[in-house]
Amino acid sequence: MPDFHVTSPAVPLPKMPTQLENAMDTLIQVFHHYSGKEGDKYKLNKGELKQLLTSELTEFLSCQKDPQLVDKIMRDLDTNKDNEVDFNEFVVLVAALTVACNDFFEEQLKNTGI
């Protein structure tokens, strides 16, 4: 019987997803977890968006004092004005918040002299 090693090219190992691939998968899963609750299962209505923001961006919302924040976010994200947020519109929010967090992080590093 031939001696096959796990590293043999004839038997490729399954590749583990990268950190970025995991992050992308998580974004998709989080969006669809909330979008499937009411109406169009591929879009967030205002209630689903509020639930997502409240559950997934707790720290961000806890700093906000504006009671109309969810309405404003909904208006800003809903570029096609269908009163729902699709995945493409949702990613804009995530990207904008990520950029803001990175800018804050860089500013903190500059202030500490690192």
From TrEMBL:
Where does the EF-hand domain start and stop, copy by copy?
65-100
Q: Which InterPro entries does the record match to this protein?
A: EF-hand-dom_pair, EF_Hand_1_Ca_BS, EF_hand_dom, S100/CaBP7/8-like_CS, S100_Ca-bd_sub, S100Z
Coiled-coil spans are none
Organism lineage? Eukaryota, Metazoa, Chordata, Craniata, Vertebrata
**Which Pfam family, giving just one, matches this sequence?**
S_100
| Organism from which the protein derives | Alligator mississippiensis (American alligator)
Q: Which CDD domains match?
A: S-100Z (cd05026)
Name listed for the protein in its UniProt record? Protein S100
Q: Which domain of life is it from?
A: Eukaryota
Please verify whether the record's keywords include Repeat. yes
Q: SMART domains from the xrefs?
A: EFh, S_100
Task: For this UniProt record, give its keywords in alphabetical order, as a comma-separated list.
Answer: Calcium, Metal-binding, Repeat
In Gene Ontology terms, what is one molecular function of this protein?
A: calcium-dependent protein binding
